[in-house]
Every structure is written in structure tokens, then in C-alpha cells.
Amino acid sequence: YKVLFTKHKTRKSKVWQDGRLKVKSGCASLFDDDKRFVEAFPAPRSDLLCVGGEFESELVLVQVEEVLSTACTAVAAASPPTFSTDPVLRKVQEKQLQRHKAAAQRKQTLAPQPHPLPRPPSRTQAQAPTQPPPPPP
């Protein structure tokens, strides 16, 4: 994929760089225009890997400009990641995958949970008399 990427995820005015994204066996590798490795991360969902798709990894924000290969990205995104044979790169990829999984787990635990306490009675229930009224004389 031909992409634009930036490391300035939180800046108001971002500086974008041209790059290439290679997706293989559930692992995405990002390279700059000089073919230097930037980052490896789990492959994004296949619906984000289309022209105009945008996603972020731990370090960068990526926008897809052009699809260079017609390979099936859905199969690549669904399969487990494979790691480089280079021991240093492999260590980096494994660490990034661990961080990605931990971040996803944190997001899941921070999702709103149902309130554990029972709801208080409504006003109509609270104002209802608890004892029957006295009989009329």
C-alpha cells in the first residue's frame, strides 16, 4: 500500500511523510520512502486498508493513498502475525504486539460497565403509601 504517515498524532498541524505499508500474515510493516523500517504492528481491519482508510498504531497515524497489490487483505488481517527472522526486529515486533494487546485490553476494561447497585425506586414508588389508609368513619 502507498500511504501517508505521521508521528505527530496529537499535534494540530501534522507533518505527513510518504511511505509503504506491507501486510503479511496479520502483521503490518511500515517503511518510509527510503525503504527504512519505521514500525511493525498487527494488521488493521481489512475495511481500513482501502483508499482513504485511516488508522493509527502505537507510534504513527496512517492514511492509505493507493492499493498497490490486489492480494486478499481480509485473509492477511485474520491470520496470526508472523515475525521477522532478524532477532532485533523480531524482538521489536513482539514488544509492539504486546503493547497493542495491552492497550486493547485496557480499552476493554475502561468501557462503561453496568452499575452493580440496584436502581433507586422511582418517585411514584417512593411516594406511594406503605400502609393502607384508615377506614372512613
The oligomeric status of these chains comes to single chain
Radius of gyration: 26 Å
- Count of helices? 3
Mean pLDDT across residues: 74
Biggest sheet statistics? 6 strands, antiparallel
Write a structural description.
The model is unreliable at 72-79 (pLDDT under 50). The protein is α+β, with helices and mostly antiparallel strands. It starts with a strand and ends in a 10-residue tail after the last helix. The chain has 3 helices and 6 strands.
Please render the helix and strand layout as text:
Layout: E1 2-6, E2 17-24, E3 27-32, E4 37-42, E5 54-56, E6 61-66, H1 73-78, H2 87-110, H3 123-127
Antiparallel strand pairs: 1-2, 1-6, 2-3, 3-4, 5-6
List the defining traits of the structure above.
single chain, 6-stranded antiparallel sheet, 137 residues, alpha+beta
